[in-house]
Amino acid sequence: MHAREDLRTGSMLAERFGLSSADTVYLSMPMFHSNAMMAGWGVALAAESSIALRRRFSRRDFLPTSASSR
Question: What is the pTM of this model?
Answer without folding.
Answer: 0.70
